[in-house]
Amino acid sequence: MDKIDIKVALSVFDKVISRGERKDETFFLNGLYATPSFDGYTVSLTDQKVTLSILFHNKFNLVYDSKKSLSEFLLKLERIDRDH
């Protein structure tokens, strides 16, 4: 099972939504896209190779093509959380 700090991921989601560039229902900031669901119970963060969906009760689904892609994605999360 992959380790994701949901608290950090939700903080990053909020930062992308509040500080990112909006395109329809998606927001973009520093290489990450953030998309809320219509009901607000699911949110997703994605780049070109990784998608993190955060579900109700802080459960999550993570889809990625390689461990390298996942590592790069996690670095993006850390940078946005730290720098914004």
Q: What features would you describe in this structure?
A:
Helix content is 37%, strand content 31%. With 84 residues, it is an alpha+beta fold. It has one domain. A six-stranded antiparallel beta sheet has the order 1-2-3-4-5-6, with helices on one face. Helix 1 crosses helix 2. The mean pLDDT is 93.
Number of domains: 1
Regions with pLDDT < 50 over 5+ consecutive residues?
Answer: none
- Helix/sheet category: alpha+beta
Number of helices: 2
Rg: 12 Å
Count the E strands. Answer: 6
For the sheet with most strands, the description reads:
6 strands, antiparallel
Shape by Cα distribution: globular
SSE pattern, N- to C-terminal = HEEEEEEH
Terminal Cα span = 28 Å
Order of neighbouring strands in the sheet with most strands: 1-2-3-4-5-6
Mean pLDDT: 93
The share of residues in helices is: 25-40%
**Strand content range:** 25-35%
